[in-house]
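Entry:
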Amino acid sequence: MAGLPWGIYTGPIDGIYPAYQDATGQSQNLLGRIALRPRTTWFGSWISDDAAERTAQRYIENVTGGNPDVLAQIAIFRIDPWEFAACHHPPTPDQQASYYNWINAFAAGIGSSRVALVLQPDLPFALCAPHRGQLALSLVKYAAQRFGALPHTTVYIDVGAADWPTVTQAVYLLRAAGVSYVRGFALNATHYDSNASELEYGAQVSAALAKRGIRGRHFVINTAENGVSWKYWQYHGPHDNPRVCRTRQDWPCMTLGVQPTWHVTNRRWGLPPDARRIASKLCDAFLWIGRPWLYAGANPFEVEQALALARSTPFP
């Protein structure tokens, strides 16, 4: 990803760019802090198997403008059922077949395009599934192999955050999900932990993988909503849609973090020296994987929430 131009999505999927276009004055300036930055767009089972290939093509065309050297960013959230539903209902044979068809079609749509791909956000939900999620993890492994074989797609398997699975659990998940076929793993996609904490955790996971024979694995960190950082147990409210910070001194709350960048060691980000050293060796990028301008990070777009995020961020 380093050195490539990162494209910006200008379509309607996440709502932010159309809102930016329609706004004026200070509202447009604030919305531009989100709309004019590279963002990761999520794709999953709400897109039919038949539409998956064309959906990938259209999205990449929008982001890159047809320039093969521009990077697009994608999150694949395709296991069905997932999250808490996965704890009790593993994918049926029909759902498994649909998964394979969808992944094959979406991979065909990506083709030789340059893509940074985050695979299966919230992967640690597999730990609550029957048989430690072996079935679901085998499906993710297939996707890791399929996307990892594309010529210009860099894959990071999501493995939660430092305040979720232990390092041992993270290694189990990543090995079962096919991390040996991809560049590495993604952190903090749906959490609000600090970059310094995630860097330390990522280094531990990478080292633990190396001890199991999977060496050289790098990672990316989601910074879309951790401008004010906190651990999951420190917030007493809805974790998927916490309140937005009212000021830059407010806590605990949610606001935009470090803008998407591969310049992870920039002193502007306020990382302590140890964290910067880890970042220089192992962290490929800070990405906006999360979507805090959407209700519960999913749907629908919330313009007032987007404005509040842009007002309160310490990283304008």
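The first helix runs from residue 16 to 22.
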